[in-house]
């Protein structure tokens, strides 16, 4: 994950490999919203006049929300996957998967977006594609659900004996083992 803490900076990192182009993407998104007023005006919060909202969003430091990410997807012709801690991924899919790249962002503290990259990505250009395999087998999905229940039980057993950090470390260790086992189950076996 690249720490940039802004949707436009994260977008620039994903598409160009540097957050320095964030102003270009901010301007593109705001212009798209301004040029498609009828699509976006009904969703502006706090009764702010549309033109005032657009002027305000041009300034660095203004936080983007769903509406701005929707515009970013449309103006860059990319789909967006948003990763959130302990939550399902959230997708903005405006284009056929074959016709568009998937931009990966993480969402933190109800206000910050960061660029998500593979651990192996050298960060020397646009983000490399991230492939997320879906669980298609109900039995494998049941194993996943059971492991989440196990983690919840582990936390609830004796939280007074462990500090919060120890609980998280143990949960992550068990989750890591589970993920390795799940990946082994999901990986097709080649017949020799």
TrEMBL record:
Endpoints of the signal sequence: none
Gene3D superfamilies according to UniProt: 3.90.70.80
Protein name: OTU domain-containing protein
Family per record: Belongs to the peptidase C85 family.
Tree of life domain: Eukaryota
GO biological process annotation, one example: protein deubiquitination
Source species: Opuntia streptacantha (Prickly pear cactus)
GO MF terms, alphabetically ordered: cysteine-type deubiquitinase activity
CDD domains for the chain: OTU_plant_OTU7-like (cd22771)
Domain OTU: 1-119
